[in-house]
Every structure is written in C-alpha cells, then in structure tokens.
Amino acid sequence: MNVSRIDLNLLVYLDVLLRERNVTKAADQLGITQPAMSNGLKRLRNLFDDPLLIRTSQGMTPTERANELQPIISELIIGLEKAVQPRANFDPLDSDKVFRVMASDYAEATLIPPLIAKLRTQAPNVILDIMTPSDVSFPDVEQGRVDMVINRFDSIPQSFHQKVLWSDDFSCLISKNNPVLKKFSLDSYLKAKHVWVSKTGMGVGVGMNPDDVQRLGWVDEALTRIGVKRQITVFTRHYQAACLLAEQQDLIATIPSKMARHHINNDRVCIVPPPFIIQPIALTMAWSPLLQNNPAHQWMRQLITKTAEEINRGDV
User: Fold this and answer.
1) Do residues 92 and 123 touch, judged by C-beta distance below 8 A?
2) Interatomic CA distance for residues 275 and 187, integer angstroms
3) 237 in helix, strand or coil?
4) In the chain, how many H helices and how many E strands?
5) Do residues 253 and 271 touch, judged by C-beta distance below 8 A?
6) Is 256 helix (H, G, I), strand (E, B) or coil?
7) What is the pTM of this model?
C-alpha cells in the first residue's frame, strides 16, 4: 500500500464509523451526506480489503480487522488533531467560549460557586454548561463533546488525563433536636435512622439495595469493616436534599465535610465527626487527550485547580 496515496479524510470517516457504528449518525457528526459517507465506507473496504462493518440483527457490527484498526486509527486521529490545532493564545477577557463541565452534585455545591465568581471577573463572557453525571458517558468525554468531568470515580479510562483536586473526610449533619446528640457514640449512631447519598462516576443511576454494601460506598464499607450496619431509610443522589432531610429530628446525614461546612451557620443542625473511621474521598477532574493541549482548556483547568486549592486551604 502506498501511504502517500491514502486520503486522510477516509481515516477520519473510519474513526467516526467505528465509534457510531451507524452510517447516518457518522455522516451527521461529520457534516456530510449519507451517500457521501456510504461511498467513503465503500472506499475504506477497498483500501483495507475487508468489509469493516457488517449489518447484523444488532446493527452494524465491526469485523475482527475493524476492531484491530480502531485503537490505531483513534491514536492517529488524536495525533493529527494535535498537529493541526492552532497554537494561538487564549484571551479569557475576550472569549465567549462555552465550557461543558460534568459536575457531581457534591462538586457543583462546593467547587462551582467560587469558580463562577472567578469567571465573572476574569472571563465575563465565558459560559459554563454544567451537566449531571446522568447526562454524560465516557465516550462523550473521550470524543471531546464534554470538556471535563469532576466527580469521585471508581475507575477512569487509562487514556484520560486526570488530576485530584482535593481529598475530603466525612462529617455527620444532625438536627439539634435529635436525641442522638445527648450521647453520640457508635451505638447511638447505629440505632438512629440515616440518609444515604452518593453518585460516583457517570451514567444513569439505578435503584439501591440496602444489603449491597459494595455499592453503598464509603460510609457503609467503613461500618462493614468493623462488623456493623446502619439503618438507611432514605436514599438520595443529591447532597442538598440530604442536608435538608438532616434537619428532621430522626435522620442523620453522613456526608463529605466540605459539603457539611456549607451548613455551619444553620442553627437547625449540628456538625459532628462520625464515631468511627471513614477513609477520605478524592474529588477528581478528568478530560480527553484530545483537549490536553488546547489553550482554552488549559486555562480553564488551571482556574479550576487554583479554585480547588483555595477551597482546600479554607480561603473561600
């Protein structure tokens, strides 16, 4: 094969086709007609002497050769993107760029408000589109459709860049009228009723099972390690809801301390340390290698990192 005679557009077509596995969707993403994409697929089949995608009952299915090519082509496209990407400096004062950021409820409550305050002075026309974990998938991030994701992750694709923004321990948010405060101990904690709140990673959530300790997360795993179990009566994916529920006399919310400190001036609740050891959690920012060298993206990552450092020091 004479490499100099290969149309590089065909490799871009192949990269999108193997991701979408649908000629119409691939054509829409590239802004070309469906016949043009079909013709491109025909040329790709001739180029590689392989059908590449075969129509089955499950849709367009890649061949073994296509599966071998996918990581190679993807890496090649990333390299091309870096090579042709403009190196012009990013001027935040003049920019009206939209940054799409997936932030967990925890990150949105603790990190995003001071970040927006900085943007108002440093980049007044920049727009933040804050998305929830249920709005986003890892392929969305990998393809650069979402600028960055900020959450607690059990796992992240190896190709992603990532940075830990901070570590956080836990506190108990308890109504001042809750009798458990008279003698707060592990025994009284276990006898009380609890609000569970968490949403790690990304994707659509599913219902919780009180007996599935591994999916319940840090608090319940810590209790399992000492051979006990708490009584969870409410499951929620929103920290603000958990904090409001903690104002009720009979409920305890065990939540990250940075979230709990938002209620330090709430005269209806007390913030107390849990009566057992819980491993700290890490808030992580992750992004696609496609955006690693983008000047605007670099600026935003630096601003987020600086904001997180100030929050961690207690400056904001």
Assistant:
1) yes
2) 9
3) coil
4) 13, 12
5) no
6) strand
7) 0.70
